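Q: Can someone sanity-check these two? First one:
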Amino acid sequence: MLLKDKIAIVTGGGSGIGEASSFRFAREGAAVIVADMRLRKAEAVAAQINEEGGHATAIEVDVSISESVESLVERTVSQYGRLDVMFNNAGTLRPGTVVDLQVDDWDLVMGVNVRSVFLGGKFAIPAMLRSGGGSIINTASISGLHGDGGAVVYAASKAAVINLTRAMSTDHASDGIRVNAICPGTIETPPVMRMMEDPTALEVNLRAHAIGRLGRPDEIASAALWLASDESSFVSGEAIVVDGGLRAQSPLGRLADPRPDHLR
């Protein structure tokens, strides 16, 4: 088991990538704190993990509020005695250009996507120092590696996550704390699949990924598991791209349908 006897917090653990990662971590031996602002969803995930013979606790958290994140870490350490893995995964999206995006929406996305990573590191790192080190994983996006039209605050927030990851890793590498980010492509999470109900949006996204399909949450969970485990012990400060070949192909390549005939 890659995470035997490890203690892991997963924010946004009630659905999507966070849910898949909570299950994956638990099946690899970790005790998992499923943290989400939707407590009932977190409780459902934790209950299922426990039914499978794993160990999980659900905790309500607002990742943009300092006191809430501090309490999350304190409760984890109080219950389990240590913290080994912090997966800052919670995120949100509001569409819009700089002209039509509302200021409140900018503040909301920056709070959930960026402030959360700052707070997660701020409170997790001291706990990790007391137990000899750990791994921090931040969910970024390929949108943080290029400009995405119509999603200006999301792209800006994810770019911030990537550079915050690098800065945190530099500050704390000598403490035995590794910090990395994951940059997913388009993943079949509940909010994404609602957007994919538009046939045009689905077609564009299928063509964008060289593999010819969207990613699954469990595929991002696999990357998170690797970064959480000692298998990645010499990896820090990286933004790991898991995007089905989206960034590998040119925009012209996206004009062709990469899917095999039986998937068209």
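And here is the second, same format, sequence then tokens:
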Amino acid sequence: MASTNEIWLCDFGEPYPGEPASLRPALILGPPETFGPVFPFVIVAPLTTSYRNLPLHIEVEPTAQSGLDLVSYVQCELIRSVNRQRLVHCIGAIGLDASNDIRNIIMTLLGY
């Protein structure tokens, strides 16, 4: 079961322009495990290796913890729900500092 702050390889399928496509890492944002496995969707933010100098993107270094091969950026502005069936396998996880930065950006984006 996917948990918050884990990075999973996710099949985003065919995109509209500007959306993430194909297989790429995605950060699990929710829901918390208290919802249980009956909830068929997870909320994710895709990662990209393209540096765009946007304050909405949080850098994640390639480490044993993250499981990433390249420096990547969590695209906080592209959060979306995907069916759990789109999750291929867990790659790793982010640290507490990055998690807090992402939470603050998303709260600002959503007006919370």
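A (reply): Looked at the second one. The helical segments are 96-110. The two ends are 28 Å apart (CA to CA).
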